[in-house]
Amino acid sequence: MALAELFTGEIASELWKMLKTISRKALRCKSSADQLITFVRELLPTIEEIKYSGVELPAPRQSQLDRLSEILRSGVELSHQALSSSRWNVYRNFQLAKKMEKLERHVTNFLQVPMQAHILADVHHTRFEMAERFDRLEASNRRMERFLGEMKIGVNGGGWVEDAVRSMQEDETYGNNSFGVGLDFGKNRVMEMIFTGHDVSVFGICGMGGSGKTTLAREVCRDDHVRCYFKERILFLTVSQSPNVEELRARIWGHIMGSQGFSGNYAVPQWMPQFECKGEAQVLVVLDDVWSLSVLEQLVWKIPSCKFLVVSRFKFPTIFNTTYQVELLGEEDALSLFCHHAFGQKSIPMGANLNLVKQVVAECGRLPLALKVIGASLRDQNEMFWLSVKNRLSQGQSIGESYEINLFDRMAISINYLPEKIKECFLDLCSFPEDRKIPLEVLINMWVEIHDIHETEAYAIVVELSNKNLLTLVKEARAGGMYSSSFEISVTQHDILRDLALFLSNRGSVHEHRRLVMAKREENGLLPKEWSRYKGQPFEAQIVSINTGEMTEMDWFDLDFPKAEVLIINFTSSDYFLPPFMNRMPNLRALIVINYSTSYGRLHNVSVFRNMSNLRSLWLEKVSIPQLSGSVLKNLGKLFIVLCKINNSLDGQEFPNLSELTLDHCDDLTHLPSSICGMESLQNLSLTNCHNLTQLPREFGNLRSLEILRLYACPYLETLPTSMCDMKRLKYVDISQCVNLTCFPDEIGRLVSLEKIDMRECPMIRYLPKSAVSLQSLQLVICDEEVYGMWRDVEMAKPNVHIQVSEQYFDLDWLQE
């Protein structure tokens, strides 16, 4: 009996425990169902995303994920059953709770074991793939570094910037040849006006901005019949909204008189007497981008045998004897031009959406500039991108209505689709004066400083903007520049694109602009009155660009630019007081000072340099270099002195960390100061077109970090210092046009890193030191045919060395002036 009672009691106890468990499970069934639904809803999308991510998975992993998806879906259904079950149906709820527990265990076990294995496998694959990608990225960076070096010294074609220049030249040639129905018609009409209008002296080409007026004028000047008719006496000048009238008058008068020697200081008579030009040759003067009647009246004279071709958006009926109105492109020419920039061919390619392409072309209004920019922005983009651009274009009015604003709206669409950094770099271009060439070095240095990017990325951005027709790259032909293996390149921009950049940059209050830019010089040559309203209030500008005439201390407003990193000063004067607010620019990194007058500008208030401890790049042009009074620019890395009077003011101790020094067209430089040789960090030295430079210091070889040495167009330089053979890092030497240089140093073979020598037009060098065969890194020598023979021994001893005989160079860059 006791045993039976004991047995019965134990059973009852266990049964009671089970009943309590069942009751708890049944009672918790609904809350468990809610938790399970939440769990599944969080997990299932992730599983589905992995399955359909487009990444091919191994079959076992795909199968496991399929099975897990099915289980999770069944869990949702099970949860809904539990939620719909009556609270008092204990058995059903218990069964459902058990199933939910089983499902939870199954999913948990999968997440703890197979899923962890998947994660480890993914991590392994990711590490392997990332290692590969980093290797590719590192190799790409090495290639970019190499291209940058090649571009600087001209080895292996010079890299992708020169390719971009070549591509732009090809585009121009292609465009002029391929879309010639309208262009040829316009050219023939203008030539007919010139040739038949014997009693007519002033002709006009008019049309909307971006319609191709300047292109037409240049094609007229390039025509063989025109060049023959005027016997090459053609002068092409850009006037712009801020012209230096006296300089333009002097150049025109010098061209008419057959002398290019007149400067702006020459007193050109206000009234021109009737006379015949020298000989019987006709003279053609082209005035491009004319905005003002008052300016035009000062530049045009009625002189026999002299004709003026004026290019403008405006008609000047009181001046023009006859005018050609530029017409927009025809539908076929517009489509062909667009396709060239969008697809790289003259027609719509197979597979492209024919109607969509034609709709985009129609929205461009048959304006060449709009077709080029918008077409280039759509190149290699998918159809959805095209559709988005088309929809945005179609939201505005037609270009013909409120022409300029609506053109801006359309062009802005292309700008807004640019990556943010490239867009900002495009907008920076408006900081420079209109119709002026921007030296590529100036632009690159500015971008490096304000955008904190490497030179290679800055060059890549230049190429990208060039490919999208948002700027133009021009290979210079400055005196000696044809021999510059660094490819003397400048940047120009259509005035419509500059106006667009200004339009996009000038939104909001003036003191909040990131770029504070004087779009043109004020009539009084001073600062805009609008700026004076913010005296005592800090400006937010990162870039400040000033364009004035002569400035005295009293002409400056008391302005504050605490965030300014770039200051661009453009002026036209022989005397200039530097702005006092430069003392309050603690973050200034790049300073550009350019004088556009015909005489050297004397700078005053140079004490401001004492407070420029963070200045890294300095460009001075057409100024008389002042004594810096002991100011030490310890962070200055790059110094460019162009067309300046040195005045024996150059002291290397003032620039202890300089890496790049350029002295170009500095006529009073007779010898390089020995203090320059103490610059231990100097890597790039250019002494170019310094026509009175006679010698280099004996200590020249102390520049042990020097990699690039340019000495071209220094005609009075007779010898190179023997000590330069100590420059173990020197990669490139350019001595082109050093016509009196007699020899290389005897121990030139010690230049173990030398890769390239450029020695065109060095007729006095008649022999080569024997040590030249020891130039172990030499790859390329460029020379004239007369001296080719002395390099044959080196070429035979070193198969990797290429001796390139230079071709005779003819400078036809008069069209670019």
Automatic annotation (TrEMBL):
<dbReference type="InterPro" id="IPR027417">
    <property type="entry name" value="P-loop_NTPase"/>
</dbReference>
<dbReference type="InterPro" id="IPR008808">
    <property type="entry name" value="Powdery_mildew-R_dom"/>
</dbReference>
<dbReference type="InterPro" id="IPR002182">
    <property type="entry name" value="NB-ARC"/>
</dbReference>
<dbReference type="Pfam" id="PF05659">
    <property type="entry name" value="RPW8"/>
</dbReference>
<dbReference type="Pfam" id="PF23598">
    <property type="entry name" value="LRR_14"/>
</dbReference>
<keyword id="KW-0677">Repeat</keyword>
<feature type="domain" description="RPW8">
    <location>
        <begin position="1"/>
        <end position="149"/>
    </location>
</feature>
<dbReference type="GO" id="GO:0006952">
    <property type="term" value="P:defense response"/>
</dbReference>
<keyword id="KW-0611">Plant defense</keyword>
<protein>
    <recommendedName>
        <fullName>RPW8 domain-containing protein</fullName>
    </recommendedName>
</protein>
<dbReference type="InterPro" id="IPR042197">
    <property type="entry name" value="Apaf_helical"/>
</dbReference>
<dbReference type="InterPro" id="IPR032675">
    <property type="entry name" value="LRR_dom_sf"/>
</dbReference>
<dbReference type="Pfam" id="PF00931">
    <property type="entry name" value="NB-ARC"/>
</dbReference>
<dbReference type="InterPro" id="IPR036388">
    <property type="entry name" value="WH-like_DNA-bd_sf"/>
</dbReference>
<comment type="similarity">
    <text>Belongs to the disease resistance NB-LRR family.</text>
</comment>
<dbReference type="InterPro" id="IPR055414">
    <property type="entry name" value="LRR_R13L4/SHOC2-like"/>
</dbReference>
